[in-house]
Write a structure and sequence with these properties.
This protein folds into 2 domains: about 90 residues, Endonuclease Iii, domain 2 (Orthogonal Bundle); about 100 residues, Endonuclease III, domain 1 (Orthogonal Bundle). It is built from 12 helices and no strands. It is mainly α.
Length: about 220
């Protein structure tokens, strides 16, 4: 079992006590709508996805309807997102597999979710944690960055970061923790210009602590 710095417990405790938003910024009303939105969100903003999904899901509200469409039909609705051709292909094949293998329902396990075209581990974890309250943490670029900057993980891959976070965060908090970290990375600990003054754990941040030591020499 890995040993982690004591400050990590304090960082996690701060998020548990102070995080306000604990839900996805993607708009959805069913597991099918969420998995569609998460597939579309790869390398694309949630804001853009939320602009696209209302018309897409009005036309294809479930797996049966989307499976009957063509890739070109789906493309027309999502052409403003990143990589629309490949995502249209994934959505079509994902819907058809839901029908053929899962009776049209989104499966609940990580293993079954990852069988679906266009669904990697991150997407599977997002759907499983949000829709089915599975105790897993999805690691996207924001979570990966925040975990490294705050010293919660030194993992080289998203999976290694996921394991480090799950080793330190209680099961009942894991579904919420994804939102803590992703929103912190999106609005505070940003990639280019982190707003360290706004950060509630800046006194525990190893990068800031090391930086203050260097400047005092």
């Amino acid at each position: 079992m890995k040993r982690y710095p004591l400050r990590n417990k304090k960082i996690i405790a701060w998020f548990r006590e102070n995080a306000i938003a604990e839900k996805s910024e993607l708009h959805y009303s069913s597991p099918f709508e969420l998995i569609v939105a998460v597939i579309l969100s790869a390398q694309c903003t949630d804001k853009r996805v939320n602009m696209v999904t209302p018309a897409l899901l009005a036309a294809y509200p479930d797996a049966k309807a989307m499976a009957a469409a063509s890739q070109e039909d789906i493309y027309k609705y999502i052409k403003s997102v990143s990589y629309p051709n490949s995502k249209a292909d994934h959505l079509l094949k994902m819907s058809r597999m839901l029908l053929s293998d899962f009776k049209g329902d989104v499966p609940k396990t990580i293993e079954d979710l990852m069988k679906l075209p266009g669904v990697g581990r991150k997407t599977a974890n997002v759907v499983a944690s949000i829709c089915f309250n599975e105790p897993v943490i999805a690691v996207d670029t924001h979570v990966y960055r925040v975990a490294h900057r705050l010293g919660l993980s030194r993992g080289r891959t998203p999976y290694e970061v996921e394991q480090d976070l799950e080793n330190q965060i209680e099961e009942q908090d894991r579904a919420r923790a994804h939102h803590w970290l992703i929103l912190h990375g999106r609005y505070v600990c940003k990639a280019q210009k982190p707003d360290c003054q706004k950060c509630g754990v800046n006194h525990l941040c190893p990068k800031l602590i090391e930086g203050s030591k260097l400047s005092s020499r």
